[in-house]
Amino acid sequence: MHHQLKPPEAATLPRHLLEAHVVWLVRQCRSLRALRGAHARLLRLRLPRLTHALALSKLLASCAASAPTAAAASYARSLFDQIPEPTAFCYNSLIRALATPSNPTADAFLLYRRMLRAGSPSPNSFTVAFALKACATVPALGEGRQLHSQAFRQGLEPSPYVQTGLLNLYARCEEVALAKSVFDGMAEDRNLVAWSSMIGGYSRVGMVNEALDLFRDMQAAGVNPDEVTMVSVISACAKAGALDLGRWVHAFIDRKGITVDLELSTALIDMYAKCGLIERARLVFDAMVERDTKAWSAMIVGLAMHGLAEDALAIFSRMLQLKIRPNNVTFIGVLSACAHNGLVDDGQRYWSTMQEMGIKASMENYGCMVDLLCRSGLLDEAYSFVTSIWRNLLVASKSSNRTDIVGLASKKLFELEPQNPENYVLLSNLYALNSQWDRVRYMRKKMKDNNVTVVAGCSSIEINSYLHKFVVSDGSHPEIKEIRVVLREIADRVLRSGHKPWTAAVLHDVGEEEKEIALCEHSERLAIAYGLLKTKAPHVIRVVKNLRFCPDCHEVSKIISKSYGREIIVRDRVRFHRFIGGSCSCKDFW
DNA sequence: CTAGGGTTAG
């Protein structure tokens, strides 16, 4: 059919031709707008009842296959509501359309339940697969698990699409053990998507070695990775700060001719930034043919993380010139760049820009602002800026002697988040700083009473493409004897340099001598010692820590860099520290 | 009509 049908013609045509016209018309549509236009045209044709129902379900399916936006979801719902007796196909399409990230109420899951309650039509493997995707998108683990058991009861579990849906649900919910058990059960059905999903799951939770092992297994199984797989692999390297691995994986991508698309480029930018090669990150960014908000944000956040505020802000203004709309993450980069460099006025200007652009501030954005103000001594302004961000206030009060704010903020904080271990550690540190050991003891008791456990500090270093992890006083490493020899030598050199161990960094109320021993075995120090043991200058010792740098280990690292003539780069939870010749790139301001 | 990916303060 090559022309637009007009109402008088429509009435005279046989049904199969009308249906062909409907299918043709809907297939032309490339956007939601076009779909609405086609819808209006079909209405004017006054189609017979059955053809009209077909038209609606075709429109609905097309809507479901379009970009998953809130607008598409609400249009899909209105289409669905006009269909008198929705088939399973219609339910499937609507469930698919409702699976948007902006749908926190898990509407898709509610619709699935409604379908079950109604008794007919009964769900099929498509229904479950789409509903699982909805749960994975939110993500909603509880609802997903219910789907799992219902799928099992209805015999839909064996479908490969349901299997991958389950695997992906668990992987996205960071339930790697569950994901792995689904993956293991798939055996013959393991395809590219299943492998990628499982690797993504490991990468998401920071199980880097597992992700890379699986990546190797995948190739051994004869499945060729594509750009989606590589995003997860690169992102695992980024998380670990594993530069050599990251570089190797990048070379692999080039060697295999895998397309470096928007997402993969963004992952590469993030990887090089987080592994300390900000120039390489910049090269990847400059080579991109298409850049979206996330790509710009990754570059800006990366530059900010390296203390390169000027570059970060220059990139940001180029982004605005090109009319790319920033989001709250972009502003985290912009504001933290300002905070790290004492640019209070700029920071406040960017804050207003953010409001003017109608971007809703996240908790993190408020945090950046409070940080910015506090670093410039504007404590009272910060206090009135957001009375609800008690923890930030507490962080900022550390060096202020404002016991009134500390008391109030900690009281509020423990009311609001009695289970967050960071709050306890934070306050304990404050008390320890002032040698208020009875209060430190009280915090420990309070933690125990409330069943709160701290996150263990963990540092890692990559040697010969293997990631070695250390926790405090960790005796589990196979080369621990040799490491301890290095540690003793470090302690000797530190002593001779005149450094006094900053024992307040040890939270236990133990004797001074024991504190010194505990300090010497902090995870970051074990990792650095291992780096000294396994590599020779000018090789750079690169360590990644999951928490913030211990202040004493920071001093000691400066001494090591001078005394051993080694360059040491440590990424802590917040930023990079680069030690050369006895000083650190953070200039002791962190 | 089915499934997998990137940026997040201190």
Q: Trace the largest sheet across and list its strands.
A: 2-1-3-4-5-6
What is the helix content?
Answer: 55-70%
The percent range for strand residues is under 5%
Low-confidence stretches: none
Query: If you compute it from the alpha carbons, what radius of gyration comes out, rounded to the nearest whole angstrom?
Result: 29 Å
What is the strand tally? 6
Structural class by SSE content? mainly alpha
Largest sheet: 6 strands, mixed
Shape: elongated
What is the typical, i.e. mean, pLDDT?
A: 88
Helical segment tally? 31
How far do the termini sit from each other? Answer: 69 Å
Protein name: DYW domain-containing protein
Organism: Triticum aestivum (Wheat)
Pfam families: DYW_deaminase (PF14432), E_motif (PF20431), Eplus_motif (PF20430), PPR (PF01535), PPR_2 (PF13041)
Domain DYW: 498-590
Characterize this entry briefly:
This protein has 590 residues and is mostly helical. Among the domains are: 61 residues, no CATH class; 110 residues, no CATH class.
Folded structure, characterized:
- Residues 498-590 form the DYW domain.
- With 590 residues, the chain is mostly helical.
- The longest helix has 17 residues, at 49-65.
- Strand 1 (458-463) and strand 2 form a beta hairpin.
- Strands 2-1-3-4-5-6 form a 6-stranded mixed beta sheet, sandwiched between helices.
- The chain has 31 helices and 6 strands.
- It binds one DNA strand of 10 nucleotides through helix 4, helix 6, helix 8, helix 10 and helix 12.
